[in-house]
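go over this record:
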Amino acid sequence: MLMCDERTRLLRRLQAEDFAVYEVVLYLDGHPNCRHALAYYHRHREMAMRLRAEYERKYGPLMNDASGDASHFCWIDGPWPWEKEAN
């Protein structure tokens, strides 16, 4: 069995939450008055936001628009995914 590090586990949790949000948005397109689906959306959206913030705090931005600092473009800080230090 493949062992995952904390970074990979956190990223996979975030991916699962993002997927749940994306799928329920598609459902809500056809069922806009479904209160259960809307509550599900808000719950998973909030969790995805928390996980994304935790990941970016620990490991850096996931997307270039999350760089945040107006005086420094931190998107390129740290190792690239293909560099040994990143894995």
